[in-house]
């Protein structure tokens, strides 16, 4: 090896060494926060005992899972998780796309900004605050709905926080309220990006606004819509913990319609201290979730390679 | 069109207005008429009451501000310094490391093992670190976002020429790449700030010591306490009720919690919308 080549090689090592060094904190963090807990998955197959720790606790095979799936809990939380998230996906899509199309028709820039600001506002606040807002509306003794709207309609007070049957609707409304702005902005950005020539040509042919929307906007919006929907389907087993825990104020009476896998895992860990069961439920969620992500990514890839995650 | 959008906007804003008005409504009026947009009698008692108990609230504010600041700055540094090398196609092991990062988006151990790692292995329960660490790199999504930005918006010729001029990798990153990446830094920084400001989950899971309550956790505690008391028939209820804030005070606290975001939001809306769009289209 000549002196020069050696020098070159040293430089190269040194150069990438700096880059590698830069990545150390981030990689170390991911190892601790994301990879280390992966080993903890074995807890689901063990009779976990605090004093013995993860590795010395006794193996019990699939007992935790058997126990979990024998209860009615497993059915209820799976049903709730899928029905809620499935409904959210469909409604998000309809509401998000419609608002985006409406917004796009607004030519007054000031008003358009105003509407966007307003619609995106709920997206920014924490679920705790949402809990307060919902409480201000629904509280039995002082809520706006019980005190102002229902008397006006001639209906007597409803005890919202102890009747499970209302919550599928309440949670759906709250979810749409909080997240519609986010999706709407994404769709709007796509619509704005559509080449104006299409619309001009359509106008020359005498197409009405509605016809333009139906034949230009919606078809050109479809790729983004498909991708967003598939991404959400991939996450259908994960719910917004705050929505299902904070908004019903953790009320026990509502759990038949508000309990989802995430809240179940949290409650069995923090309230009941049932580590085995909650990690079994957690693993069930992770595995099904991962499979769903792969399936939807596969479909995304088929439709449009650029939009696939991997 | 305007009518529909106006109605939708109203639905988004009105709950906030109800919150603010409730916080300045006279207590007795609330008990008689409930929360209302047009109260019979206004009163600033709630804010006066909070002012008397300001210590606890300021303390929680302090915790929230500190956690938000440290979390956002550290999060940005770590994200950027991880995303930049990944954006360099010439780097060895690039493919493997990218996979290593993105895998964390797909599969995780779940709450239980994560909880055990932080509480048993690192003993972070009831420390400020427990509020910061678990959300530092919450999703590889931000890394992807930045990596895409570095790849598409920073011309590689620029990096080449810096190299020819004899600049080291770190110098190039610090003096050339970062200043050109302000839009993405602002976007991710904003997301992190909102995320840390609104975070209550870490506090709920890892914090039991009320000295470390963040604003959101304090608000959460007050809301759940009241719900618990009003739904139970304890004989001590009246006794306890004297200790907890009353209706208008509760709403005033919520106002205090949400106000900073609502004030700052219009100024950052531009970045925010841009960030959402970039994230969605490239994500």
Give a nutshell description of this structure:
The complex is a heterodimer of chains A (310) and B (283). Chain A contains 14 helices and two strands; from the N terminus they run H-E-H-E-H-H-H-H-H-H-H-H-H-H-H-H. Chain A is mainly alpha-helical.
What does this structure look like?
The complex is a heterodimer of chains A (310) and B (283). Chain A has 310 residues and is an all-alpha fold. Chain A is built from 14 helices and 2 strands. A two-stranded antiparallel sheet of chain A has the order 1-2. In chain A, helix 3 packs across helix 14, helix 4 packs antiparallel against helix 10 (209-234) and helix 13 packs antiparallel against helix 14. The relative contact order of chain A is 0.12. Chain B is mainly α and 283 residues long. Chain B is 76% helix and 0% strand. Chain B is built from 15 helices and no strands. Chain B has helices spanning 2-23, 27-33, 45-52, 54-87, 94-106, 111-121, 129-132, 140-153, 156-164, 169-180, 182-198, 201-206, 215-231, 237-241, 247-282. The longest helix of chain B has 36 residues, at 247-282.
């Amino acid at each position: 090896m000549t002196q020069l080549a050696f020098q070159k090689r040293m430089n190269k090592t040194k150069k990438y060494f700096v880059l590698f060094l830069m990545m150390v904190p981030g990689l170390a963090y991911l190892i601790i926060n994301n990879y280390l807990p992966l080993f903890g998955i074995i807890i689901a197959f063990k009779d976990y005992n605090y004093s013995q720790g993860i590795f010395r606790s006794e193996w019990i095979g699939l007992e935790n899972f058997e126990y979990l799936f024998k209860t009615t809990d497993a059915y209820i939380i799976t049903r709730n998780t899928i029905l809620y998230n499935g409904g959210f996906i469909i409604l998000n899509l309809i509401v998000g796309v419609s608002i985006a199309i409406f917004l796009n028709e607004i030519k007054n820039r000031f008003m358009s900004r105003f509407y966007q600001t307003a619609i995106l506002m709920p997206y920014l606040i924490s679920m705790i605050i949402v809990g307060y807002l919902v409480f201000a509306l629904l509280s039995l003794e002082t809520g706006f709905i019980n005190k102002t709207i229902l008397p006006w309609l001639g209906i007597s007070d409803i005890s919202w926080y102890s009747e499970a049957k209302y919550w599928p609707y309440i949670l759906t409304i709250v979810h749409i309220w909080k997240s519609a702005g986010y999706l709407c902005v994404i769709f709007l950005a796509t619509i704005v990006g559509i080449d104006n020539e299409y619309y001009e040509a359509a106008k020359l042919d005498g197409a009405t606004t509605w016809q333009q929307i139906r034949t230009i906007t919606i078809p050109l919006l479809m790729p983004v819509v498909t991708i967003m929907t598939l991404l959400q389907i991939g996450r259908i087993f994960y719910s917004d913990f705050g929505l299902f825990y904070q908004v019903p104020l953790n009320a026990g009476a509502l759990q038949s319609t508000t309990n989802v896998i995430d809240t179940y895992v949290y409650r069995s860990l923090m309230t009941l201290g049932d580590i085995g069961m909650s990690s079994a439920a957690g693993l069930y969620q992770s595995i099904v979730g991962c499979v769903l992500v792969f399936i939807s990514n596969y479909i995304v890839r088929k439709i449009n390679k650029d939009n696939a995650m991997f | 069109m305007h009518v529909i959008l106006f109605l939708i906007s109203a639905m988004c804003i009105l709950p906030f207005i109800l919150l603010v008005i409730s916080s300045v409504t006279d207590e007795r009026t609330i008990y008689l008429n409930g929360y209302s947009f047009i109260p019979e009698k206004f009163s600033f008692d709630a804010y006066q009451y909070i002012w008397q108990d300001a210590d606890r609230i300021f303390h929680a504010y302090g915790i929230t501000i500190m956690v938000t600041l440290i979390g956002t700055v550290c999060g940005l540094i770590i994200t950027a310094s991880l995303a930049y090398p990944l954006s360099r196609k010439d780097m060895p092991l690039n493919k493997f490391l990218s996979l290593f990062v993105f895998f964390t988006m797909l599969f995780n151990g779940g709450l239980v093992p994560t909880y055990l790692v932080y509480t048993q292995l690192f003993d972070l329960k009831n420390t400020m670190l427990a509020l910061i660490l678990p959300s530092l790199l919450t999703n590889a999504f931000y890394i992807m976002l930045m990596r895409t930005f570095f790849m598409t918006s920073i011309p590689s010729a620029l990096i080449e020429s810096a190299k020819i001029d004899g600049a080291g990798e770190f110098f190039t990153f610090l003096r050339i790449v970062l200043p050109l990446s302000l839009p993405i830094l602002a976007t991710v920084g904003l997301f992190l700030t909102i995320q840390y400001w609104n975070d209550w989950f870490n506090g709920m899971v890892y914090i039991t010591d009320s000295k470390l309550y963040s604003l959101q956790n304090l608000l959460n505690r007050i809301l759940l306490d009241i719900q618990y008391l009003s739904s139970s028939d304890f004989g001590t209820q009246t006794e306890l009720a004297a200790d907890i804030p009353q209706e208008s005070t509760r709403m005033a606290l919520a106002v205090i919690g949400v106000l900073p975001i609502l004030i700052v939001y219009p100024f950052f809306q531009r970045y925010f919308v841009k960030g959402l769009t970039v994230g969605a289209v490239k994500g």
